[in-house]
Amino acid sequence: MATTSATLSPVTLAAATVTSPRRRTSVNVNYISGLNAFGGLKAHNNVVSLGLPVCTEQSFAKVVSSLRAPSKEKGGGALSTTCNAVDEIFRIAAIMNGLVLVGVAVGCLILTCMLVELGDRTLPAAAWSPSFFGKDQLIHRKLGALADEYGPAYLIRLGIHRTLVVSGWEVIKECFTTNDKVFPTRPRTLAAKLMGYDHALMGSAPYGPYWRHTRKIATVELLSNRRLELLKHVREAEINYLLKELYEESVKSGGVAVVQMREKFSDLAMNVIVKMMTGKRYGGPDGRNDEESKRCQKALNEFFYLAGLFTVSDAAPALGWIDVLTGTISKFKRTAKELDYVLGSWVNEHRERRLAGDTKGDKDFIDVMLSILDDGKTSAKEADITIKATCQSLLLGGNDTTVLTLTWALSSLLNNRHALKKAQDELETQVGRDRQVEESDMKNLPYLHAIVKEALRLYPAAPLSAPREAMEDCTVAGFHVPAGTRLLVNLWKMMRDPSVWEKPSEFVPERFLNEHAKFDVRGQDFEFTPFGTGRRMCPGVTFALQILHLTLARLIHGFELGTVSDKPVDMTESPALTLAKATPLEVTVTPRLSSNLYAC
After folding, report:
1. What domains can be seen in the chain, in order of their start residue?
2. DSSP 70
3. Strands of 470-569, DSSP E
4. Which residue numbers belong to the known binding site for heme?
5. Transmembrane ranges (predicted)?
6. Residues placed in the known binding site
7. What value does the mean pLDDT take over residues 183-195?
């Protein structure tokens, strides 16, 4: 039985079941219980009543029956059926007075409007949206709980915006195959406007020529297989720096060091991405201004935090002034200014070098973008914004995904020592202890791949996909979805579906060696899409996997890993746009290879 919802006003809703005269199917309609102020509609146990004397309600029941009966006239629908009930309405009016008459009239009018709308526009069963975006709210879990109640596709209202939330892989597949051309664009948000160069970031830009152009540049000039192979030395050098630092800290501490691993992973990811874009390391040994590096990292963290907050402007634009009073807009602008300072310094440095004729050596990503945009058609200001926005997109997409996935993977291994031991045994067999792990070894390490996949399944860096917006009317899961409806995919919920995954909440890498061995992360297996799918899928999947596999392999191979006092790792999640650990990951590291293997 199909269910649907019609939401007319942001007030408390009560459900009642009626029959659409045009569809002849039972549908779930949300009535405005605020009508009870007029002595109007009430709902109890899915039965609508008027709060009137029995004789009056019996009379009105005839109206409802008339409304529910299909018209016998050719072409008759909800409107013609309603007209047939006018005489009955006036008969009822004769025995009513004052507010009772108003209540019934308004009730009938709204019921008629709902039935007319339902004749053409069936929507998934709606859930009234609570304040999902408050402080300390794990939105993906709240939406997951609603999916348990309403099913894999349901409708909520986020302020004035109708939002379709999907968490079933079959529905997701329909959205991004049959309807992929319907959902390629992003809705406009205050965060993307103020912190993303007015929607110029790849992740938030509307679908169109600009988005296609910048994505193509990033994909071909930085994230293609050819380019990643040329930049292989960058990844390996930065991972070597990480191992060297861990080894030196262990030696200074008498053989065992206690390390905050998120900070180490953050430095690694930042330096790899920045070196690929600018040609230079950004922080740490032999790097540039370490204070500037920390400033940039802090601004990135602030971006993710602020982008995940509820803003009144997005929910109800007419009340946007509230964001001024609460300081939200000033926070957005301050973070944008910090990021622009860093990104602008990179672009200015490259421009000055080009003007000085210093173009020797390999071109980095910013060099390539300057060459492409220096076509005489793009102003310097527009080119600078495009370059800064693209670099910011790559930082946001590559940094947090790498850091969070490595943190969750290592945390899971420390809480499942048998899996850690199994991974080390695999490395002992395939690599031994006489050399470091190389990228060429990855094809011989299936259990390591399974560990990374399981970490991505349980803890996707983006538990909710960035929202999309329907560009035209379409049908999803048998329901009519009008243009302008926003789409939110709950990846976290989908990848814990018990109908697909046995023991879905447990860390079991072996599942990717057995029943799910063929599952890949590149968006074609819709039960497992940690990087998204469709036209807006993350373009940096190959880059992310290269970093994740090699870093985790060298870490497991090079050190005995443990926790302070052998306590289990706290796996509490932090409320944010991305899925971060709420507490730092403190790890004890003890070198297990010959000292010469840790030298850069």
Report:
1. 13-120 (no CATH), 190-598 (1.10.630.10)
2. P
3. 474-476, 479-481, 486-489, 559-562
4. 538
5. 89-116
6. 538
7. 96
